[in-house]
Amino acid sequence: MSDSSSLVSKVWNYAHILRDQGISYGDYVEQITLLLFLKMAPCCFTWVG
């Protein structure tokens, strides 16, 4: 299994666990997207000030 396939598998496994706890897939994807954006922000943007 490639690294990307392994990562996708892990992400969806967490999604299934959280779904069982009452968190919807949409909420999960929204939070993952926000975390990835925040993780990328320092390398992609320069702060003015």
TrEMBL record:
Q: Does the keyword Repressor apply?
A: no
Sorted alphabetically, which InterPro entries does this protein's record hold?
A: D12N6_MeTrfase_N (IPR022749), SAM-dependent_MTases_sf (IPR029063), T1MK-like_N_sf (IPR038333)
Which family is this protein grouped under?
A: Belongs to the N(4)/N(6)-methyltransferase family.
* One of the Pfam families matching this protein, by short name: HsdM_N
Keyword annotations from UniProtKB, A to Z: Restriction system
Keyword Transit peptide tagged: no
Gene3D superfamilies xrefs: 1.20.1260.30
Q: What is this protein called?
A: N6 adenine-specific DNA methyltransferase N-terminal domain-containing protein
Domain spans labelled N6 adenine-specific DNA methyltransferase N-terminal: 7-46
